[in-house]
Amino acid sequence: MEILETWPALLFIASGLLGLLVGSFLNVVAYRLPIMMEIDWRAQCAELASQSFTPPPHAKGGRFDLMWPPSACPGCGAAIAPQHNFPVVSFLFLRGRCPGCGARISPRYPVVEAAAGVLALVVAVVLGPTWQTVAALGFSWTLLALTLIDLDHKLLPDSLTLPLLWAGLLLAAFPVHGAPLFTDLFSSVLGAAAGYLSLWLVYHLFKLATGKEGMGHGDFKLLGAIGAWTGWQMLPLVILLSAGVGAVVGIAMIAFGGRSRNTQIPFGPYLAAAGWIALLWGEPLITLYERTFFPAR
Fold first, then answer.
1. 72 secondary structure, DSSP code
2. Which of 120, 176, 286, 294 could form a disulfide with 15 if both were Cys (CB 3.0 to 4.6 A apart)?
3. Given this model, what pLDDT does residue 47 score?
4. 85-119 pLDDT per residue, tens
């Protein structure tokens, strides 16, 4: 940490580059993890196995996980060469096309890579050369992966939300240099419980009133995980930010996007964005709110 304190620019450059590399892997996670889960469900559930499901060609007949098989072009199936696997740069160099068959490469790949790099850079700038930065990078990238999966599949996998929850609790349980990185253990445990139970209660009240399910159970776990990292004190801010942005986006989609009121909108991305903001700027935002609406007399 001493060299990073002496040369802060080194921290920013290293964080940004690491974020680009992790962003490339997050594309793999966001694409493959739901397929892995579907394959596993089909293997375990006879009822589901009797229904129609066609996995992608490269997911058939052998090992399929986050590490294997190597990334390949979805058009021709050719493995991506190492020299074509540099985040963002390779996409620009190849002009967004496969060097083998010429098929278009989705711009999502460089966008996610760049997003992971920007998230890492912001975390490094805000938190500096501290252990908080190391932990917050894992928090940020996990939220990004959950956002992508929820947008694609309306799914927040337990294999990501639960480790995130436990990581927040463990960080609170083991202070660094005598102080917790983000919040104390009591606030973390209470935040995890309150985060989960608050959306659980909303879910059941909404179902009781309308007979419909207003959100998935993964949302409960994600807010519980965010509460474990930020403490219960930040939960009102997280809920306010996520609900506010979600409402604005939902109204805009109905008004301008031709969507109906019955269209399902994943709530996970809004929770993830609000949780990330709360971890980095929660206290200043709460202080600003109190000074604006409850000025000292």
1. B
2. 120
3. 54
4. 888 999 999 888 988 888 898 999 999 999 999 99
Return the ∠ at Cα 37 (arms to 32 and 41), rounded to 5°: 150
Q: Is the peptide bond before 74 cis (omega within 30 degrees of 0)?
A: no
Q: How many C-beta atoms surround the C-beta of residue 291 within 10 A?
A: 10
Instruction: Kindly report the pTM of this predicted structure.
Output: 0.85
Cβ burial 220-246 (10 Å sphere, 16+ → b, else e): bbbbbbbbbbbbbbbbebbbebbeeeb
Question: Which three-class secondary structure state does DSSP give residue 176?
Answer: strand
DSSP states of 137-159: HHHHHHHHHHHHHHHHHS---HH
Q: Cα(first)–Cα(last) distance of the chain, in Å?
A: 44
Q: Which residues contact 163 (CB under 8 A, 6 or more apart)?
A: 142
Distances (CA, A) of 267 to 65, 82, 236, 257, 281: 27, 36, 16, 18, 21
Please provide residue 15's backbone torsions phi and psi, each rounded to the nearest 5 degrees. Answer: -65, -45
Residues 6+ apart with CB under 8 A from 36: 64, 65, 66
